[in-house]
């Protein structure tokens, strides 16, 4: 009799709703799904459906059901139809083929407690408002430029975290890690959004904010009857909607106080000279008033900031805490990651974001942590309309769970999936950017987490700094075996018991001078530079120095006289360059606009911006500066063309103005280099050479007539490999391909094979010398950047180039002389011999005015050398990369071999006439050239001052056309970093210079003249290799671990040459 009236009313309403639902269910079951097949799933109870099947950890329960029901699981949570995606294959089909149909958000009744919740980017419906918010986020806060510009803010926030932990963890004090991580992440977002720190780990307002946020999150994920039976929402049976609204109001008050405080500071002019932050963007926003709001209301503005402060920190904090936990559980992994940081970063400076790409094991630790401990599900989606999906009917408004936790632990995708093994990601291209569907911690498709680029930086910077700055110990009584690994369900899977550890500050050694990192870095640097200055300015009292300082003094005093001369010359050149720059600055560019680009340093300009992979570094700058990028490499003005549109404008409208070659000082080492068709200036001599090449060597008739030669050379290659193959031993592919191409060019130019087999001494000497010469030419040379130092040849590069070139030309000359002797001995048969290209060069007679009367012996040898190198390098590299990519993607290998078998069969050899009938191998060649072209087209030089795309380009500017970046531009190509030959099937895009998004051979008047020959050889060689052998990876290699590192040169070779096992097939 003591039951309250409201409770009686509640349960009566539930019973009525249950009966009504049961009747409706029976009536609708036959009509709604008549003739339509739903995915399989466990049979639910009447009314409640599968609610009781979920358990306290639903992600675990649902993952277990995959083994019984497959990748798609259908459940009913009360009256809510729910589809669970449980495999990488199903996720791929969803995101690739049905992303639009599944792109709405499913908001349960708890999330509908306040309209402002649905105003966030994570939870808003897919429509104009969401697109507007996404645009603001990606352009104003998560753009690559913005993230790069705010690196110092992240560094400062992390430094503050290190200081907090240092102060808290003195001696043997135990610290709870999470509050420091959370305060750091909140402050970072605070600086991006409000230009200020918001909290510290012990602030009252900060603790209130954390506690209220946690309470709100717990309320939202709490089982709510109204979520399962939306017809009860008007009743709010557990009072959850009311509680959510109350907590949200309290949190928004705190956020509002942050905003008001920031506004007052502006009014008081305390933030006058500051950069615009995201709050400014939101306050200044003006929509179109139709499908976008005219202004963003104060409450929605506070809600958006709250979203950033919560969603923008939760994943990062939880991941770092789990990473530390896993490393403490696995001491071997902890040693490896700390050793890598010590090796790459050292102890003499702080960990920086620029180190991330070089820290492979640290990145693998982050990935493995995100695999094992992602959010349990991606944010639930809702189906926009009735959809046919993987053979099943999915009704409109079905709730969709993508079980990210289950995908990351699926034994179909991962070996030993429950173990923490960062090594699985070493050498693997699997990443969390939404293209690898077995690994989706940030989601995929159009609703991928927009903040993942920032999270990428913060995860590595925070974890790396924690590992570099402290040695970590478990608290007393806890061991690596007994540390708690319990999970607490939420939007992320937090540790059930927060991690507590003992941090021990590490000592850093810098050039023999020892100090504690956190407190004495400034004094250390001052002493180091003072010591260095003293060595130059006055004698040193060595007796008064410590052992470490004596070591430093000895190192500094070992400077040679030559190095002193170089640095003196550099200083003089620097001063002269600076003076000239100041004098010419106003006169040369007055009223003229140069393209945008990164601000360079005095004298050296942007040299340090290039990195070890300049094509990739410059490709990244496109997002910040646009398709034209202006840089200064020392004193050399340089324009970088980085998009298809800019390339089209250049080659269609300005090809003549940009048609000269830029020869750096290394290339000027020998006049013979500038006598080649690739490097000669645009003038009558070049036109004469081009005419000779196109009419006598690579005309269509000549290429058709020499088809038997190519067949014979390729047959010889197949025999070489067959003789070498035993079915179990691997071979290095490149020497066979290279020897074949050298012989082909030898027959075209000199009517003979030049290399008897890939192991010949003369052949090997030629290959080695060529490789050494190429490395010298691309080697960074001070004189290339500061041509005023060319007379000094400060690194001796020009001298070394000349020496190597002389040795190579001796070998080429020996080929020519041997042929001449044979011709003299067989003079009577000379008329019967078909004329080769050497005959053409020897018989050439110029007009003696703008053409030389005869071609000198040295220039003749140089032209033959050009054919033997430029005519082979791109083809060899492309074949090697094509084989690598096919071995990495077995399904593509199967397709290309199946097509060759279908079209050509097994009863004859593949011929050049088959090329047009085998579109998939053609697509493989194109896709390989798209992903692995030469990094830049041969550099051009501007003939005269030119107006180009609205910018002024001065005469003699060096021009880089970034073919690598253009081929991977996401504005042009879908999933640009993936090897997908299918993108070229049914496409007219080709590499003949008319499709400016795809320029492996260049375009315009200086397009590679050997393109028609390369086209034939690429298809014939790759097709023959695939038809004649079954290729298996070397022992220990898998498609996931095969090395794909690039080595910079005129082309991008594989860092580690491809080795594979050929198994002979009968043709």
From TrEMBL:
InterPro entries (alphabetical): Cyt_P450, Cyt_P450_CS, Cyt_P450_E_grp-I, Cyt_P450_sf
Cofactors (names): heme
Molecular function, one GO term: monooxygenase activity
Keyword set includes Acyltransferase: no
Family named by the database record: Belongs to the cytochrome P450 family.
PANTHER family xref list: CYTOCHROME P450 76A2-LIKE ISOFORM X1, CYTOCHROME P450, FAMILY 76, SUBFAMILY C, POLYPEPTIDE 5-RELATED
Protein name: Cytochrome P450
Lineage: Eukaryota, Viridiplantae, Streptophyta, Embryophyta, Tracheophyta
């Amino acid at each position: 009799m003591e039951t309250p009236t409201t409770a009686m009313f509640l349960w009566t309403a539930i019973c009525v709703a249950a009966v009504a639902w049961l009747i409706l269910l029976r009536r609708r079951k036959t009509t709604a799904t008549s003739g339509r097949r739903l995915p399989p799933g466990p049979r639910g109870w009447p009314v409640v459906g599968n609610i009781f099947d979920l358990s306290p950890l639903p992600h675990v329960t649902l993952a277990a059901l995959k083994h019984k029901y497959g990748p798609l699981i259908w459940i009913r949570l009360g009256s809510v139809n729910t589809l669970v995606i449980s495999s990488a294959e199903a996720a791929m089909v969803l995101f690739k083929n049905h992303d639009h149909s599944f792109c709405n958000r499913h908001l349960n009744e708890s999330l509908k407690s306040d309209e402002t919740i649905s105003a966030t980017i994570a939870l808003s419906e897919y429509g104009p408002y969401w697109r507007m918010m996404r645009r603001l986020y990606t352009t104003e806060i998560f753009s690559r430029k913005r993230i790069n510009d705010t690196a110092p803010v992240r560094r400062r926030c992390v430094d503050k975290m290190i200081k907090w932990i240092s102060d808290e963890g003195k001696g043997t004090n135990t610290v709870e890690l999470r509050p420091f991580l959370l305060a750091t992440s909140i402050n970072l977002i605070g600086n991006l959004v409000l230009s200020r720190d918001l909290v510290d780990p012990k602030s009252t307002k900060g603790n209130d904010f954390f506690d209220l946020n946690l309470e709100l999150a717990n309320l939202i994920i709490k089982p709510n009857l109204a979520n399962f039976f939306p017809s009860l929402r008007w009743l709010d049976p557990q009072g959850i909607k009311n509680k959510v609204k109350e907590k949200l109001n309290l949190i928004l008050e705190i956020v509002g106080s942050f905003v008001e405080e920031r506004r007052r500071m502006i009014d008081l002019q305390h933030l006058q000279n500051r950069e615009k932050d995201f709050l400014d963007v939101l306050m200044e926003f003006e929509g179109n008033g139709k499908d976008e709001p005219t202004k963003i209301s104060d409450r929605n503005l506070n809600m958006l900031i709250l979203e950033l402060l919560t969603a923008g920190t939760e994943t990062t904090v939880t991941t770092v805490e789990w990473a530390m936990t896993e490393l403490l559980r696995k001491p071997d992994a902890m040693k490896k990651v700390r050793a890598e940081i010590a090796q790459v970063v050292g102890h003499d400076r702080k960990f920086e974001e620029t180190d991330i790409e070089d820290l492979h094991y640290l990145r693998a630790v982050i990935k493995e942590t995100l695999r094992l401990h992602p959010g349990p599900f991606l944010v639930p989606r809702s189906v926009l309309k009735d959809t046919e999906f993987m053979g099943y009917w999915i009704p409109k408004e079905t709730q969709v769970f993508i079980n990210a936790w289950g995908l990351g632990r699926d034994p179909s995708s991962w070996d030993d999936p429950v173990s923490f093994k960062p090594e699985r990601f070493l050498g693997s291209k699997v990443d969390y950017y939404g293209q690898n569907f077995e690994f989706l911690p940030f989601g995929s498709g159009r609703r991928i987490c927009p903040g993942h680029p920032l999270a990428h930086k913060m995860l590595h910077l925070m974890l790396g700094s924690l590992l570099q700055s402290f040695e970590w110990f478990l608290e007393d009584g806890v061991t690596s075996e007994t540390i708690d690994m319990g999970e607490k369900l939420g939007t992320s899977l937090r540790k059930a018991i927060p991690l507590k550890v003992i941090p021990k500050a590490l000592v850093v050694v810098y050039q023999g001078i020892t100090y504690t990192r956190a407190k004495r870095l400034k004094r250390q640097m001052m002493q180091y530079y003072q010591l260095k200055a003293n060595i130059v300015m006055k004698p040193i009292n060595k007796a008064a120095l410590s052992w470490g300082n004596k070591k430093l003094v000895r190192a500094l005093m070992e400077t040679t006289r030559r190095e002193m001369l170089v640095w003196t010359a550099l200083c003089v050149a620097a001063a002269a360059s600076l003076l000239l720059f100041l004098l010419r600055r106003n006169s040369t560019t007055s009223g003229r606009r140069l393209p945008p680009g990164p601000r360079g340093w005095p004298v050296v300009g942007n040299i340090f911006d290039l990195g070890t992979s300049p094509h990739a570094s410059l490709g990244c700058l496109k997002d910040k500066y646009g398709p034209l990028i202006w840089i200064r490499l020392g004193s050399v003005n340089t324009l970088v063309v980085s998009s298809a549109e800019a390339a089209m404008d250049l080659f269609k409208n300005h090809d003549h103005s940009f048609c000269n070659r830029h020869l750096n000082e290394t290339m000027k080492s020998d006049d013979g280099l500038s006598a080649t068709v690739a490097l000669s200036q645009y003038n009558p001599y070049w036109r004469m050479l081009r005419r000779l090449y196109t009419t006598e060597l690579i005309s269509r008739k000549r290429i058709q007539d020499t088809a038997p030669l190519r067949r014979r050379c390729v047959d010889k290659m197949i025999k070489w490999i067959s003789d070498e193959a035993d079915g179990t031993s691997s071979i290095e592919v490149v020497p066979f391909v290279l020897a074949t191409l050298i012989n082909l060019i030898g027959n075209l130019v000199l009517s003979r094979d030049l290399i008897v087999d890939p192991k010949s001494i003369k052949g090997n000497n030629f290959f080695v010398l060529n490789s050494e010469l190429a490395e010298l030419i691309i080697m960074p040379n001070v004189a290339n950047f500061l041509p005023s130092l060319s007379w000094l040849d400060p690194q001796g590069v020009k001298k070394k180039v000349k020496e190597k070139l002389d040795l190579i030309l001796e070998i080429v000359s020996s080929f020519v002389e041997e042929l001449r002797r044979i011709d003299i001995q067989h003079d009577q048969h000379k008329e019967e011999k078909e004329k080769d290209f050497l005959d053409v060069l020897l018989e050439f007679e110029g007009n003696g005015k703008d053409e030389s009367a005869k071609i000198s012996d040295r220039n003749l040898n140089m032209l033959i050398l050009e054919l033997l190198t430029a005519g082979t390098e791109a083809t060899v590299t492309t074949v090697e990369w094509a084989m690598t990519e096919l071995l990495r993607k077995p399904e593509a290998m199967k397709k290309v071999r199946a097509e060759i078998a279908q079209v050509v069969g097994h009863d004859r050899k593949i011929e050049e006439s088959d090329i047009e009938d085998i579109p998939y191998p053609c697509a493989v060649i194109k896709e390989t050239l798209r992903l692995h072209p030469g990094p830049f087209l041969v550099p051009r030089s501007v003939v005269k001052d030119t107006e180009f795309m609205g910018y002024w380009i001065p005469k003699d500017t060096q021009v880089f056309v970034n073919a690598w970046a253009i081929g991977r531009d996401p504005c042009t190509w879908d999933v640009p970093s993936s090897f997908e030959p299918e993108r070229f099937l049914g496409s007219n895009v080709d590499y003949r210079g008319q499709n400016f998004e795809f320029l492996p051979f260049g375009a315009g008047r200086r397009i590679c003249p050997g393109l028609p020959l390369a086209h034939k050889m690429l298809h014939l060689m790759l097709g023959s290799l695939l038809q004649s052998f079954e290729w298996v990876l070397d022992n220990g290699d898998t498609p996931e671990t095969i090395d794909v590192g690039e080595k910079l040169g005129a082309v991008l070779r594989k860092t580690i040459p491809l080795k594979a096992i050929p198994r002979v097939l009968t043709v």
